[in-house]
């Protein structure tokens, strides 16, 4: 399923001031691609995801998914949020079934499909648990299973692993690669973690700081499965990072005032710098 | 154990006070007289009639209150204009003890069941509405976004997401509403409407039979507490277990 964004702009009105979140973003995502959107905080990358999801409407420009313009939420594009957004009044399997009610499946088919995807994320044992009994990583697994069970063509992931600890995140990176390889979804993944982007994506799109526009694209042709510690992943991440850093600096300056700058290439004053003068 | 001990002490103080002869027995009945009256009233059926009449009234009045209150709270919680207008009006009305509606209710409905139901409903409906309204306003926006993303909107959004998410708050309102409704009903029955437990209190007073008065008071407390234990305490424990809230 192909996603095409053409000259997409979005502005918000906040306390009477118009804030430009995105300006003239044009981006094409091919079917089966794994695209990571990276940018400084507040660059509008989550906004772009909301626009593709149809949860918000662009101020101008078009978003076309599979030849049809996006006019609202659709079951072909399912979002996974940073906070798992699971419903605490339902147990795990009913959370997964939640999105299946409108698909015209029988109760048995719904249960079968939910169980299938819970198995895929290795949570079959927690079928009947309540949400609060799960760890953060398990909650995100359920959220992934819930999204997959609707069998959308596009997965929209909004910093899904940002709130997890590093070990859990590593494991989920591996599993997401497997799931992506298995299900052939088109993935649009928002993150501020460049390493994560380099580890997962076939293409990384760098957005400028507010207002967001596409700054640069990086193609990553390494084979899967990848690991975040692989040297070439780290190297690719380093390149992306260099470009991102100047954007972060720009964003910080906008937030904190013009005199703020990130001191570059300077040695920090330390005890090895004064040649033992303190002895 | 401590509780039982406490009640034993309480009853013995009561027994000692009544046998000390400070007050006449019709002014201050002994525990045994009350127990005796309670037993007689229950076996000859006169208390049972009173209980069934009161329970029927509370069931209808409270049931309607919960339905109306939830609907009202949903409307206020969802429509901004109504929140600013009707919402503040309801907050104000809540300050009025519902028995104060009785004179108006008698004029509107006459001296009958309608008047007492009205008073009961005015007691409970506002508490339920206010809690529902608060519950809906506090529904985490992420739930709504997630549901909309999965194609749920309109009535289904309310049925499947907003109401369940607001349910803990609604139960708190229902619990508060129950005690308001029960008080309102007793006050109403005491003042004028035939049969019912409140009426039995007045009969006791008219006959100068304080043991009947105390016995009926015990029944009123027992029913109020039973509803709380059987209905609301269970609901709350279930919700707490589900949502993972502290017990």
How does the major sheet of chain B shape up? none
Q: Tell me the greatest interface.
A: A-B, 24 and 20 residues
In percent terms, what proportion of residues of chain B is strand? under 5%
Rg of chain A, nearest Å: 21 Å
User: Which residues of chain A form runs of ≥5 with pLDDT under 50?
Assistant: none
How would you name the oligomeric state of the polypeptide chains in this document? Answer: heterodimer
CATH class of the largest domain in chain A: Alpha Beta
End-to-end distance of chain A: 68 Å
What structural class do helix, strand and pairing data of chain B support?
Answer: mainly alpha
The computed structural class of chain A is: alpha/beta
Q: What's the pLDDT, averaged over the residues of chain B?
A: 88
> Distance N terminus to C terminus of chain B?
22 Å
What gyration radius of chain B follows from the Cα positions, in whole Å? 22 Å
Total E-strand runs of chain B: 0
Instruction: Give the helices and strands of chain A as they follow along the chain.
Output: EEEHEEEHHHEHEHEEH
| Integer tally of domains of chain A | 2
Largest sheet of chain A: 6 strands, mixed
Strand order of the largest sheet of chain A: 6-7-8-3-9-10
């Amino acid at each position: 399923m192909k996603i095409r964004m053409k000259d997409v702009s979005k502005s918000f009105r906040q306390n009477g001031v118009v804030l430009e979140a995105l300006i003239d973003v044009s981006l094409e995502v091919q079917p089966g691609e794994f695209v990571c959107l990276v940018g400084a905080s507040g660059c509008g990358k989550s906004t772009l995801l909301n626009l593709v999801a149809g949860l918000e409407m662009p101020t101008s420009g078009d978003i076309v998914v599979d030849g049809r313009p996006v006019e609202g939420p659709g079951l072909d594009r399912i979002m996974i949020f940073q906070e798992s957004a699971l419903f605490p009044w339902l147990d795990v399997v009913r959370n997964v079934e939640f999105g299946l009610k409108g698909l015209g499946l029988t109760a048995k088919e719904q249960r079968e499909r939910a169980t299938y995807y819970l198995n895929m994320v290795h949570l079959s044992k927690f079928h009947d648990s309540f949400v609060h009994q799960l760890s953060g990583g398990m909650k995100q697994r359920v959220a992934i299973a819930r999204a997959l069970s609707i069998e959308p063509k596009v997965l929209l992931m909004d910093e899904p692993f940002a709130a997890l600890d590093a070990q859990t995140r590593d494991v989920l990176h591996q599993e997401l690669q497997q799931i992506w390889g298995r299900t052939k979804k088109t993935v649009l993944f928002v993150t501020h973690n460049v390493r994560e982007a380099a580890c997962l994506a076939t293409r990384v799109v760098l957005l400028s700081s507010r207002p967001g526009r596409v700054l640069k694209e990086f193609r990553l042709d390494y084979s899967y499965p990848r690991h975040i510690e692989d040297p070439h992943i780290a190297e690719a991440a380093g390149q992306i990072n260099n470009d991102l850093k100047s954007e972060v600096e720009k964003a910080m300056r906008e937030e904190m005032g013009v005199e703020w700058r990130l001191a570059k290439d300077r040695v920090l004053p330390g005890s090895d710098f004064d040649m033992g003068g303190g002895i | 154990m401590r509780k039982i001990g406490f009640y034993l002490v309480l009853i013995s103080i009561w027994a000692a006070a009544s046998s000390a002869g400070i007050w006449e027995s019709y002014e201050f009945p002994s525990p045994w007289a009350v127990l005796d009256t309670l037993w007689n009233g229950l076996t000859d059926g006169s208390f049972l009639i009173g209980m069934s009449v009161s329970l029927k009234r509370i069931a209808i009045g409270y049931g309607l209150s919960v339905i109306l209150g939830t609907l009202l709270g949903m409307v206020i919680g969802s429509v901004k204009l109504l929140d600013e207008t009707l919402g503040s009006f309801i907050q104000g009305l809540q300050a009025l003890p519902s028995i104060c509606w009785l004179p108006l209710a008698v004029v509107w409905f006459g001296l009958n069941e309608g008047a007492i139901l009205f008073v009961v409903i005015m007691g409970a409906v506002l508490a339920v509405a206010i809690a529902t309204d608060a519950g809906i306003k506090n529904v985490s926006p992420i739930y709504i976004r997630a549901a909309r993303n999965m194609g749920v909107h309109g009535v289904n959004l309310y049925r499947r997401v907003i109401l369940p998410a607001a349910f803990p708050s609604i139960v708190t309102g229902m619990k508060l509403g129950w005690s308001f409704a029960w008080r309102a009903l007793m006050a109403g029955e005491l003042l004028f409407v035939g049969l019912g437990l409140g009426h039995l209190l007045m009969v006791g007073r008219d006959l100068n039979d304080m043991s009947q008065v105390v016995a009926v008071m015990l029944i009123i407390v027992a029913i109020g507490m039973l509803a709380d234990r059987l209905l609301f305490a269970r609901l709350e424990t279930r919700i707490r277990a589900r949502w993972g809230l502290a017990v």
